[in-house]
Amino acid sequence: MIRKIFSDIKMAHGHRLSVCFLMLMFAGTVAAAGPPAAPIVVEKALERKLAPIIWVTGDVISRNNARISAETSGRLVWVAEVGDGIPKNSVIARIDNDLLKLQLDESRAEVTRVESQRGFLEKEVKRLRRLAKSNNTAQTSLDQTEANLAAEGANYLSAQSRMKQIEDRIRRSHVRAPFPGIIVQRFMQPGEWVDSGDQIVQILDTNALEVRVMVPLSVMPFLNKGMEVHLKSGDEQAMGRIRSFVAAGYTASHLVDVRIDLSYQAWPVGKTLRVAMPASAPRNVVVVSRDALVLRRNGAVVFRVTKENTAERVVVRTGVAQDSFIEVIGDIVVGDTVVVRGNERLRPGQKVRISAAGSG
């Protein structure tokens, strides 16, 4: 009877209706077989030695931050502007040295005079020595001339020393940067009188950065020079290495001063950061990739792949994190295959198809 009805319908509506009917039959077959296996990327749960951490506040500072003072007295002629980039050994301030140049000319003339007098006495000594051999002159005259020559030699050294001192003061009238950096503050303005020791500018090296952090004294036993630590500020993250720390805490605060080398140049001096410091000795824990975690309103879950290639939902608690790995506490053991891609839409018991294995 059904065949007859279908035949009549086919005759009435043609070939298109039969095709639709076959498509409906195929869809019903697929529905009976269930949805296709979901493609996923997996990694293995690992065992790693990690230490619990505490987050403390630190600040980006420069290792080279100096207030540059005058080394001679005089009137300021020029001072670098705030914000100027200054190469090492370049001039950052100039002090009027006109009077020093006049003194230098006078000192050079004195050196020339003494040098000329010394040359005359050297010739006189040679002449008197020749005469002394012929007994034509008194020995006392020769002795006196030799003494005068020795005195002029001392005068020559003294005059040269005075000349070099003035030359040094002229050089110091050009105040130079001891390291490359930028001018962050001017304490004196052009036209003002400065004495030796007066602060002129503050210069800061923006290429030699470090992080200063004060950590509890209880953390000090777990610190090591060269230890890598995690730094973050908002969504920005970077890694640093402990360069040094004071092996004693401040009496009042019970805090330890730790310095961390910073190669991430995007953070300026004065930036406040959060720094992860070890809170106890490292211990062996089970870790998975951070991508394996599926965060839900009531907690975190990890999808494990069973021997039947189905997704198994495992509720976990998280612990210590390091780099791209995080500790998981729950029914996850070392060697378990966990999903790191394609896990957001998985349902418990759903068939899966492993399309790639991750680095874990």
Structural summary, described in words:
Helix content is 28%, strand content 39%. With 360 residues, it is of the alpha+beta class. A hairpin with a 5-residue loop joins strand 19 (299-305) and strand 20. It has five domains: 2-33, no CATH class; 38-51 and 283-357, conserved putative lor/sdh protein from methanococcus maripaludis s2 fold (Beta Barrel), CATH 2.40.420.20; 53-63 and 208-278, Efflux pump adaptor protein, beta barrel domain (Elongation Factor Tu (Ef-tu), domain 3, Beta Barrel), CATH 2.40.30; 70-93 and 177-203, no CATH class; 98-172, Helix Hairpins, CATH 1.10.287. 20% of the residues are buried. It is elongated, with a radius of gyration of 43 Å. The chain has four helices and 23 strands. Helix 1 packs across helix 2 and helix 3 (98-133) packs antiparallel against helix 4. A six-stranded antiparallel β-sheet has the order 2-17-21-20-19-18, with no helix packed on it.
Keywords:
360 residues; alpha+beta; conserved putative lor/sdh protein from methanococcus maripaludis s2 fold; Elongation Factor Tu (Ef-tu), domain 3; six-stranded antiparallel sheet; 23 strands
Beta fraction of the residues? 35-45%
Low-confidence stretches: 26-32
User: How would you sum up the major sheet?
Assistant: 6 strands, antiparallel
Task: Give the CATH level 1 class of the largest domain.
Answer: Mainly Beta
- The tally of strands reads 23
Total of domains: 5
Helix content: 25-40%
What Rg is obtained from the alpha carbons, in whole angstroms? 43 Å
Question: Structural class per helix/strand content?
Answer: alpha+beta
